[in-house]
Each structure stands twice: as structure tokens, then as C-alpha cells.
Fold this sequence. Notes:
The chain has 170 residues and is mostly helical. It has helices at residues 10-127, 130-135, 140-150.
Amino acid sequence: MNYTGLSPSRSSIREANDHLQELYKRVDDLEHxxxxxxxxxxxxxxxxxxxxxxxxxxxDKEIMELRRSLESSESHVQRLLAxxxxxxxxxxxxxxxxxxxxxxxITKPALEKLLSNITKAETFRRSGSPSxxxxxxxxxxxxxxxxxxxxxxxxxxxxxxxxxxxxxxx
Length: 170
């Protein structure tokens, strides 16, 4: 019994076997490629995970440093504000002293003239020369007029620093 019509020829069997061998080889190559790519992707994933963790740690460290820097800056600002408030208070105190000195400087000439007139009056009184008092330009009304021109003493004028009456005005 010859199966030539039904059975494949030797050359076609050989061709089929060669083709199967090439297919097996190609499947092995593809499996090898897939395995290499999978390993490469796993490595890359591990590297990316490591880099992500490092970036996260670096970010957290930088955030902590920035927070410390912010706290330090806020503390510095608070110290500067306290210093500014203290200096403002000192300026206000010195300004009130300045105003007092200005008032004293304004009234000083009148006070000096009053003192000079009182000294002259005392000298005249001691010398016992009533005629000198009548002929001089000195009399009590001049003293009062000169002294009231530059300052006054009243209950309305109160020094705000210590609550006492301020006997001087301009």
C-alpha cells in the first residue's frame, strides 16, 4: 500500500520540519526578548521607585529647612517689631522733652527780664532811694505786663506726662 497521494513527500515533511524549527526558534527569541524587556522594566521601575523616594526625602528635608528658615525669619521680624516699638516709645518720650525745652527757650528771655527787673527793684529798695524808683523806667506794671506776654499759669494747662500743672505756655 502506497500512500503517495495521501502522504506528504519527504521534501515537504522536511520543509515543514524546517519551518517548525524556525517557528520554535522565533518563539524562543521572542520569549527571550519579552523576558529581557520585563527584567529591564522591573529594573527601571525599581530605579524610578528609588529616585521617587530620594526626591520625596529631599523634598521633605527642604520643606523642613524652609520651615525652620521661616520660623527664624518670623522670630527676627518679631524682635525687629519689638525694637521698633521701643524706639518709637523712646522717640515719643524725647519729643515731649523737646517740646518742654522749646517752651522753656521761648519763655527764658521773659523770665530773665523779670529776674533782672526784680534784682533792680531789690537794689533800689536796699539803696533807699525812692526817687530812683519814680524816675526809672521800672515799675510793677511793666513787670507784670512783660511776664504775662510769654507765659501764663492756669488750671487748664496740665502736663500729660505726670498729670501735674504746667505753668508755662507759648
